[in-house]
Amino acid sequence: MRRVDIYVLRLAPEPDALVRVLTVAARLPGAIRSLSHVEAYTRLEMRGLTFEFGQLLAARLRALPCVSALHYLEGHGPAAQTLDKVAS
Asked: Residue 51 needs a FRET pair 20 to 30 A away by CA distance; which of 4, 37, 78, 87 works?
């Protein structure tokens, strides 16, 4: 099992806010495990990111003008720490 990073975002009511978030996420070497969007909140789960890339994605998402709040739960799962050690 690969580590899974979870990002919960509050987005501005702009028509392309979700597209902006997905564009940033798609540029990193991970995969979107799941995505749910309800009203102004989006939950994004990314699989396969290293600790550094998980932190980088959180920083890039926070910098987007359409993101008004972000909660980041870094990699979890039984193999999260082991995979980080192997990747470094």
From this structure: 37
How far is 65 from 48, CA to CA, in rounded Å? 26
Looking at residue 32, its amino acid is: I
Q: Which residues pair with 9 in a beta bridge?
A: 42, 70
Give 23-56 pLDDT, tens digit per residue. 999 999 889 999 998 887 999 999 999 889 999 9
**pLDDT, tens digit (0-9, with 9 covering 90-100), for 4-26:** 999 999 999 888 999 999 999 99
What is the value of pTM for the model shown?
0.81
User: Residue for token digits 């987007």?
Assistant: 64
Q: Write down the H helix ranges in 2-87.
A: 17-26, 51-63, 80-87
The encoded tokens of residue 73 equal 């739960």
Q: In this structure, what DSSP letter does residue 52 have?
A: H
> In angstroms, rounded to a whole number, what is the distance separating the alpha carbons of residues 37 and 23?
15
